[in-house]
């Protein structure tokens, strides 16, 4: 990373951090270097960073504001517990605040009324102002304070969709309330009521929930629904009812982290699932928040091992370009991950990953010796029940996999499958094939092929049951229509059961009603034949039939993901499938081929799975 000071990164400290080598000094260094690398791209008054690259749908001016607001969040965390400010981050961002909120400035920011995206950035600026209050807000002139309040006050009366965005409005209002600005208490309460309806159980929120379904799940459950809820309370300290609300949110966060904290590989990689993945190490923001609010289900050293492992994973694999800018992508720059709302400044939402800097060096999360994560020591399989996920981590290869029986990101009216939501499996080492079936198997499918050659999709998933290593769900087979262009033809319902041990999933499928289909296909994880720099090169993905009639093969898709190109997908095909019969395969992803379990009927006709080692289960 480039910059104008501090040319050398701190040395690793293997005494304090035996797993990552990184300490608070490394995170300070990362914050400083990334902020300094932005400065050459600043407008003269520091109100924007006009970074290279194509703009988002919101346009380049809003993109420049995004880069300012999201990096200011990093500066706010950097300054929160700081005893000094050697790079004058406070002065730099104070000048930008004065310029961006000045109605007469050529660099003035779009109003919250005119630019919806500015409503998100206002919340980040509010948090940054709160955390850096003694460095910046307390030293602004009365005129600049008034300008800032006037700009943030555009949140009052502005429309925010029924989604995680309502936390952005509440955080902005909370800051306005804390400095004597205008705010709408009735709207705050209305938003809190809606956001509580998004709560499922065990700490998990389903974003938006258009019809009460629990399938709208991704990393937003942590980096907005959890973290922003508690920062709303932090900014609102002393307000009536806030202490009780903070206790409730902390309890939810603690439960959330007990599951989400297991979604990181031994190399630090977070689970690759859902949208906005260019935010990268924002995924650990909620974990740091657990330490800030005493809502941590792990030891301080265990939490730091996961957080620093994830941040280090991205830093060491090229997340920052040669000029020190955080690129759109996952490992390094990968433009195909740029969604329509992603500007060159959007990846700096990763600043949430620096949340731990609000804790002083004396805090146990920094002072205690790193402790191992479970995946460092042993194989583990568990369930995240509210969302229908089985989570399997294996110590031998350090990979975490999720078997998905509940998340589909769909409402009552089915839409086309989304590769990052509807597939049967996700992992910390692979990405899904970024397309739907076009006559070939994509990864982690259970699909019928009808007599017209159409492959069924899985836009709606209904979870039936789940325990620590078994999940069952139903999915209606939906066939996309050629004419009209929109909509689906509904085929038979499929019941799907997964049994998971170690790196192997036993996947059993039964067609519940009369069927006229050419084939039933089940597939495994997609592994690139040409791994990207920083991606694993030792992955083995395999599928094996465990009941009669299955034929196997592989399909190579000449497309690219963040992990590499030429994606090879193993599959098993059962021709002319019948109803009310179980079709069973085993699916694995690891660094070696596994020993497969066996499936045989018992005397009553029930299928019995015998695992290597002798454990027995019934399908």
TrEMBL record:
> InterPro entries this protein is in?
DUF2264_N, UCP014753
User: What is the protein's species of origin?
Assistant: Nonomuraea terrae
The segment(s) forming the DUF2264 domain are: 23-372
Name used for this protein in its record = DUF2264 domain-containing protein
Q: State the source organism's domain of life.
A: Bacteria
């Amino acid at each position: 990373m480039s910059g104008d000071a501090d040319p050398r990164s701190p040395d690793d400290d293997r005494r304090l951090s035996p797993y990552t080598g990184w300490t608070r000094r490394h995170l300070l260094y990362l914050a400083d270097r990334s902020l300094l690398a932005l400065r050459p791209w600043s407008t003269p008054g520091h109100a924007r960073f006009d970074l290279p690259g194509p703009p988002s749908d919101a346009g380049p001016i809003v993109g420049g504001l995004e880069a300012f607001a999201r990096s200011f969040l990093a500066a706010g965390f950097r300054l929160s517990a700081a005893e000094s400010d050697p790079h004058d981050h406070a002065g730099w961002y104070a000048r930008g605040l004065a310029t961006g909120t000045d109605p007469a400035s050529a660099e003035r920011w779009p109003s919250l009324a005119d630019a919806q995206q500015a409503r998100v950035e206002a919340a980040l600026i509010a948090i940054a102002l709160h955390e850096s209050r003694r460095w910046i807000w307390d030293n602004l002139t009365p005129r600049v304070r008034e300008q800032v309040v006037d700009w943030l006050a555009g949140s009052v009366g502005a429309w925010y969709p029924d989604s995680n965005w309502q936390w952005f409005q509440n955080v902005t209002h909370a800051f306005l309330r804390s400095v004597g600005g205008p705010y709408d208490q009735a709207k705050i309460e209305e938003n809190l009521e809606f956001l509580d309806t998004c709560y499922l159980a065990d700490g998990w929120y389903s974003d938006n929930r258009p019809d009460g379904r629990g399938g709208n799940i991704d990393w937003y459950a942590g980096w907005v629904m959890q973290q922003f809820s508690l920062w709303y309370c932090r900014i609102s300290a002393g307000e009536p009812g806030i202490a009780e609300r903070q206790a409730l949110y902390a309890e939810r966060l603690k439960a959330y982290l007990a599951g989400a904290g297991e979604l990181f590989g031994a190399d630090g990689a977070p689970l690759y699932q859902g949208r906005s993945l260019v935010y990268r190490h924002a995924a650990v923001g909620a974990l740091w928040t657990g330490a800030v609010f005493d809502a941590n289900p792990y030891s301080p050293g265990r939490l730091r091992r996961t957080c620093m492992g994830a941040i280090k994973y991205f830093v060491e694999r090229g997340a920052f370009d040669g000029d020190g800018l955080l690129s759109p992508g996952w490992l390094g720059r990968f433009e195909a991950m740029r969604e329509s709302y992603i500007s060159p400044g959007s990846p700096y939402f990763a600043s949430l990953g620096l949340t731990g800097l609000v804790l002083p060096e004396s805090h146990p999360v920094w002072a205690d010796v790193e402790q191992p994560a479970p995946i460092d020591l042993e194989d583990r399989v568990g369930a995240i029940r509210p969302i229908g996920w089985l989570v399997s981590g294996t110590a031998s290869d350090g990979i975490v996999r999720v078997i998905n029986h509940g998340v589909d990101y769909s409402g009552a009216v089915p839409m086309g499958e989304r590769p990052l939501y509807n597939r049967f499996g996700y992992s910390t080492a692979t990405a899904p094939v970024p397309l739907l079936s076009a006559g070939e198997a994509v990864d982690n499918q259970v699909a019928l092929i009808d007599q017209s050659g159409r492959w069924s999709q899985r836009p709606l998933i209904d979870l039936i049951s789940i325990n620590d290593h078994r999940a069952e769900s139903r999915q209606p087979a939906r066939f996309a229509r050629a004419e009209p262009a929109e909509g689906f033809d509904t085929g038979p319902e499929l019941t799907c059961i997964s049994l998971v041990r170690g790196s192997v999933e036993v996947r059993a499928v039964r067609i519940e009603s009369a069927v006229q289909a050419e084939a039933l296909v089940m597939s495994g994880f997609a592994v690139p034949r040409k791994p990207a720099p920083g991606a694993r090169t030792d992955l083995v993905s395999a599928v094996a039939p465990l009941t009669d009639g299955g034929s196997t093969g592989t399909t190579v898709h000449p497309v690219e993901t963040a992990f590499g190109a030429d994606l090879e997908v193993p599959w098993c095909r059962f021709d002319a499938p019948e109803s009310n019969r179980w079709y069973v395969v085993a699916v694995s992803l690891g660094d070696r081929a596994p020993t497969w379990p066996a499936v045989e009927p018992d005397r009553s006709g029930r299928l019995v799975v015998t695992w290597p080692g002798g454990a027995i289960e019934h399908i």
